[in-house]
Design a protein that fits this description.
By secondary structure, the protein is α+β, with helices and mostly antiparallel strands. It is 23% helix and 30% strand. The protein is built from two helices and seven strands. The radius of gyration is 18 Å and the shape is elongated.
Length: 141
């Protein structure tokens, strides 16, 4: 009698339907198994503010706690994606400007998403930032 065949490997876990994918300082919002992004931020040329970016294009700027401009309408994103990206960017910019370590910034994101009713997005996938030469072209997404 032949020995029984080994059991097949377990299936991979199902892909999350909602969440945030962090890659270095930028991130994608996963909504209904589709990713939107990358969302990113960078210092303005005069280092007096922080520019907010979507897919490599500026959509807003943080000038001070009293002056924040942002408009994502041209990208026609789902409302939930806009809300979640706004929360995440706000937390990241706050964390950077206040010297919070990366882990505390992510905890702040999680807390704010949960308190805002977006707990389904509080699942994070964290990938290391690839070398500059290997980064995805945002126009290819």
């Amino acid at each position: 009698m032949d020995p029984p065949a080994p059991a097949p490997p377990p299936p991979p876990p199902p892909a999350p339907t909602h969440g945030i994918l962090f890659e270095g300082g930028r991130f994608w919002v996963l909504h209904r198994r589709r990713d939107y992004g990358p969302f990113d931020y960078e210092w303005s040329q005069d280092f007096a503010g922080v520019e907010l970016m979507y897919a490599g294009k500026k959509f807003g700027e943080y000038c001070s706690k009293d002056e924040i401009f942002a408009d994502l309408k041209e990208f026609r994103l789902p409302a939930a994606v806009v809300d979640v990206a706004t929360i995440v960017l706000g937390c990241l910019v706050f964390g950077v400007l206040n010297g919070l370590p990366e882990a505390e910034r992510r905890q702040l994101v999680c807390d704010r998403l949960t308190s805002g009713g977006y707990e389904r997005f509080a699942q994070f996938v964290i990938r290391p930032e690839p070398p500059l030469i290997n980064r995805r072209d945002p126009r290819a997404s």
